[in-house]
Amino acid sequence: MATYNQSVTGFVAGNAVTTAKTQQIPDASMDGDACTTPGGMTNAMNDGDYLLCKGPDGAQHWYKYDAERSTVANPVLIFVGP
């Protein structure tokens, strides 16, 4: 089960409304590694780890970081699946 204690949010790549960070990023990736700290984000991008993100409506979907466009302050997510 994903936890969202740090309330880190991210943009969705290809979303028409890219001015709002809509997805809440979990504290740990699918394999249990931290993914919201700067070092954890780097590791998640390098490994291509999946993240179970929560949308504004509470629905959860799998995403991964877009390594080319993400920064620590502005993570960009790519939709992987339901």
Radius of gyration: 11 Å
Order of helices and strands: EEHEEE
Largest sheet: 5 strands, mixed
Return residue spans where pLDDT drops below 50 for at least 5 consecutive residues.
Answer: none
State the secondary-structure class: alpha+beta
DSSP helix fraction: 10-25%
List keywords for this structure.
single chain; 82 residues; alpha+beta; five-stranded mixed beta sheet; 1 helix
What does this structure look like?
- The protein is α+β, with helices and mostly antiparallel strands and 82 residues long.
- It has one helix and five strands, in the order E-E-H-E-E-E.
- It has one helix spanning 38-47; strands at 8-12, 23-25, 51-54, 60-65, 76-81.
Describe the structure in brief:
The chain has one helix and five strands, in the order ββαβββ. It has a five-stranded mixed β-sheet. With 82 residues, it is of the alpha+beta class.
